[in-house]
Amino acid sequence: MATFVDRVVLNVSAGSGGRGIASVHREKFKPLGGPDGGTGGRGGSVIVYVDAQMTTLLDYHHAPHRRADNGRQGAGNWRHGASADDLRLAVPNGTIVVSMDGEVLADLVGEGAEFVVAAGGRGGLGNAALASLKRKAPGFALLGEPGEEASVTLELKSIADVALVGYPSSGKSSIIAAMSAVRPKIAEYPFTTLVPNLGVVAAGASRFTMADVPGLIPGASEGKGLGHDFLRHIERCSVIAHVLDTATLEADRDPVKDLEVISEELRAYSGDAHIAGVPLAERPQVIVLNKVDIPDGRELAKIVREDLDKLGMPIFEVSAVSHEGLDAFGYALAAMIADERAKKPELERAPIVLRPKAVDDAAFTVTHVRDGAEDFYQIRGIKPERWVRQTDFTNDEAVGYLADRLARLGVEDELFRAGAIPGSQVVIGTRETGVLFDWEPTMAAGAELLGRRGTDLRVEEMERSARATRNEKRAEHKDRMDAKSAAREELWTERDAGHWTDPAEDDQEIAGE
Length: 513
Ligand SMILES: Nc1nc2c(ncn2[C@@H]2O[C@H](COP(=O)(O)OP(=O)(O)OP(=O)(O)O)[C@@H](O)[C@H]2O)c(=O)[nH]1
Ligand SMILES: [Mg+2]
What we know:
The chain is α/β, with parallel strands linked by helices. The chain has 14 helices and 18 strands.
């Protein structure tokens, strides 16, 4: 049996950023040019987006691993590395992106909806961008950040106005074929349809979409016969049409029983809490008695109508083969759908889904971890962890720059506050993947503060600055200016390289120094 493919696990890797370059400018008669190493390009992100032409996730079933290109490295003469193109993956309208923990990350409805599954890494700054008053000729550059990796489940919940539901072989695909331009597979064996077929039906001036859902059987709501996979497609439909087979040869079945069984499954299916809406069993429903071109079928249709009429649903006697009754069925559906659309116009608009942005990427935490023989200070935070990834640890200057950045963010202050002393073990990131090092405070003030541990450091700090001589103040001011120019430099370069996000937030970072 063919595999049902509207639920696939997709594994993606975004591209890494290109590394920055440390280079010294060379020109005739100017032996000592300044630093001119360019910044690396951004790695490509992996983005899924709605393409209305797509109807299945089959492509991703066949090739579930996708990778975006890396950014190129910078070069001398202030040349930036090229950024990689994003890898854009087309998915059908109605695709849901679910994390491996089952959290719905995005519900892609409507043309234009897209979601960044894995973000490309930023390019590393070249030494030209790292130069500042204090560091006139940096002999190092930053590494590009690795691209994100992610595994997500893509799940298709078809979006159609009408869902045709019913037992296998009741003629759902035949009806959609007779009423629209789609040509689904039709055969006399059950479970012919494995992926819903989506057709556009014209009834006079109105148009609506109809999905033929794979056949349902008793127990479908508990997952029998791939029931969950099938029921999932009905969740977004506004009208449910029960296709009943009036010519079935199975002894224990007849249209009334079939309807009871399928209705029970709809009631039992709780669906996805995310697609909140009217429970399936309470949506507008119609009954379609199919195969009345067969004399026995027409006769049975007449017999069961009496019972079915009591349910109060509109009933249509049709034949997908002779097309009898299909026009009336189409017009009635068009009218019902017009009513439904009028009730919920807001659902027609396509929301553009973007990756939720981190709340505060300058925030970090310092935790003293003591666990058996282990005793270390752990730093977690978006910025410190990113900076670590950008650092070339074989280059002392680069390591020094990292230390400066951490000090500027306030990481050192927090380490002091948490009780760290020179030589304490510090981990930035997780215990498994982070970097571990022996802490050497960069601040001269650190040693002073350290000698007085146990007293209120803020009071100490105030006293200290009151004591500071004019010279000290001047030196402090110069340091601050240096730091500002470095940060501003960084901001501009990131802007040039096209991977800055929110200027307000970056400005704050500078202002906060
Ligand atoms: N005589 C007659 N045969 C029909 C009619 N509609 C469908 N059939 C036949 O019934 C069989 C099943 O039709 P399908 O359209 O594949 O049924 P289905 O409900 O899509 O079945 P699954 O995809 O397996 O759930 C085929 O052999 C069709 O030719 C009809 O109106 N009259
Ligand atoms: Mg079918």
